[in-house]
Amino acid sequence: MEMTLRWYGSKFDTVTLQQIRQIPGVTGVITTLYDTKPGEVWSQERIHALKEEVEASGLHISGIESVNIHEDIKLGKPSRDQLIANYIETLENLGREDIHLVCYNFMPVFDWTRTELARVLPDGSTALAYTQKAVDELVPEEMFESIAGDTNGSVMPGWEPERMAHVKELFEEYKNVTADDLFENLKYFLEKIMPVCNQYDIKMAIHPDDPAWPVFGLPRIITCKENILRMMKMVDDPHNGVTFCAGSYGTNLNNDLPDMIRSLKGRIHFAHVRNLKFIDPNPETLNFEEAPHLSRCGSFDLYEIVKALYDIGFDGPIRPDHGRMIWGEVGMPGYGLYDRALGATYINGLIEAIEKSNK
Ligand code: DNO
After folding, report:
1. Based on C-alpha coordinates, what's the Rg of the chain?
2. Is the CB of 106 under 6 A from ligand 1?
3. For the whole model, what pTM was predicted?
4. H-helix or E-strand containing 143?
5. Measured from the CA of 272, which atom of ligand 1 is nearest?
6. Residue 321 annotated to the active site
7. Is 290 near ligand 1, meaning CB less than 6 Å away?
8. Would the CB of 28 count as within 6 Å of ligand 1?
9. Which of 114, 161, 168, 351 has the largest CB neighbor count within 10 A?
């Protein structure tokens, strides 16, 4: 496993490559061209420049998170063929630059959903949080405004203003789209891109829906073991794989995370490891917050999660996930430096202990 950190690029991130380089055991970054729009071709020149910038700091690019999918592809509209052709061009350009991992998601309209970006925890740190009550009281178009005041001036991934401007129209378009349609549209997309993934050995790693259930009546499919295995079988190519995101699958307490990991042997290409603390686990009154990574601070057993990854022979990039804001840091919610650095160090400790006790 290679320990990595997500980095949004020097124009957008409050964390620098030099800071990331100083976290013990972090050798790579997971990055993106954050100012590109879904459907746009990423030029080889821009990818090359990004790569040079990262390498100049002594790190390297371990993968891309994300190359986002245009809504027309998810909706299965006739325009999808051109958009998929563009996606393929981007993959070719990434492959030519020796980048072999792409994380993406297939969530309609919204990417991840949280109802608070800065809940104050008892120790004075702040964390992202979710309550079902807040979601039930919101109309979807107001989702973004309801949290916009807490972004610390950052553009939040998945909540880009251009995307939010079209929320109403998008809801109309998804009105008759079922979960099965979404599976079909995903299959269509994957079948078209698999040849280029094979040619350049690009591992596609789908990110789960977060939270792992349909929100605002929109279908969501990457939510549980049954569905992810259905997707793996539907396009049975090792390049069709998974980002195993503990914090996203873990929102649904029926998901047995270590068991899911074991059932995905050979198909996990990227791992996001984080801990959640459930204040109220009842689905109707659900309330959870993002906890420090340490097992005893939240509801998940991080040792069992990392152990399962080790046991299936996972050797791809792994990263700490959302961190809290601690020590007075001001940054993109979830993506500050300090708490993620603590997370990376803790996970590295778990990996060392598991490796040594297995020798
Ligand atoms: C949020 C992230 C997601 C994730 C995308 C992957 O913090 O986990 O935005 O990167 O869903 O495409």
Report:
1. 19
2. no
3. 0.97
4. helix 143-148
5. 8
6. yes
7. no
8. no
9. 114
